[in-house]
Amino acid sequence: MPDGLRRLHHSGQPHFLTFSCFHRLPLLAQMEMQNAFPLALEQTRRRFQMRVYGYVVMPEHVHLLLSEPAGILLSKAIQSLKTSVSLQARKEKKRIAGGSPFWQARYYDHNVRNSEGFITELRYIHRNPMKRGLCKAPEDWPWSSFRAWALGKIGPVEIENEWTARRREGLNVDGLPSFPQTEAERMGHGVSSLTTLSPAPHPSPVSLPARPIPLSGL
């Protein structure tokens, strides 16, 4: 986070986060860690009982839209996530020239205070690869949450949206997603084979509208 700014913890609001590889080198792509990162994110979501609203893995940085974790500071959860990816790279014997770290120190953290801000950040996340010229459309980039929102696709990370809430309730998914409300609070029903954590209560997220988010907003 830039000097002069302070993080607002325990706000009950979603957080838009950005962190980069060391010196913004494209290490996630070069070291083939773009598939490993979502798996580590899902493990972190379960371990710290967080909600993941959106994410994108770029060649040299990551954007996340998350809830605050249960019982600890968000910074501790992010530190754990970054460490997990670094250790996985080392385990696969993927080293950086000169023994440099995998991640740049610190990260950018912005509290999302209303529905307009939520949609703006989610749109930015999903359109980032297209803006960079890495793909022609958001759905063409495999390392993001776009298809979970637009099509209800199940991926390596459980995305907190209306599609997921309906699956938990055993309901048919027959429309576009809306921002999760209190009925979507239950956790621990992940989509992969990782160990499921017991659900625990969370502070309610910032009040956002129940109306669906159109595809043009993603």
Describe the structure.
By secondary structure, this protein is α+β, with helices and mostly antiparallel strands. It has a single domain (15-185), classed as Alpha-Beta Plaits. It has helices spanning 27-30, 36-48, 74-91, 115-131, 146-150, 162-169, and strands at 15-20, 52-57, 61-66, 108-111. A four-stranded antiparallel beta sheet has the order 2-3-1-4, sandwiched between helices. Strand 2 (52-57) and strand 3 (61-66) form a beta hairpin. The longest helix has 18 residues, at 74-91. The radius of gyration is 17 Å and the shape is globular. The two termini are 26 Å apart.
Helix and strand topology:
Elements: E1 15-20, H1 27-30, H2 36-48, E2 52-57, E3 61-66, H3 74-91, E4 108-111, H4 115-131, H5 146-150, H6 162-169
Antiparallel strand pairs: 1-3, 1-4, 2-3
Outline of this structure?
The chain is built from 6 helices and 4 strands. The chain is an alpha+beta fold. The chain has one domain (15-185): Transposase IS200-like (Alpha-Beta Plaits).
Features:
alpha+beta, 218 residues
Total number of distinct structural domains? 1
Query: For the residues shown, what is the average pLDDT?
Result: 80
Helix content estimate = 25-40%
What structural class do helix, strand and pairing data support?
alpha+beta
Number of helices: 6
Cα-atom radius of gyration: 17 Å
| Through-space gap between termini | 26 Å
Give the uncertain stretches in residue-range form: 1-5, 175-212
* Extended strand count: 4
Shape call: globular
By CATH, the topology is Alpha-Beta Plaits
Tell me what the CATH architecture is. Answer: 2-Layer Sandwich
How is the main sheet built?
4 strands, antiparallel
Give the spatial strand order of the biggest sheet. 2-3-1-4
Question: Briefly, what CATH class?
Answer: Alpha Beta
| Fraction of residues in β-strands | 5-15%
H-E string: EHHEEHEHHH
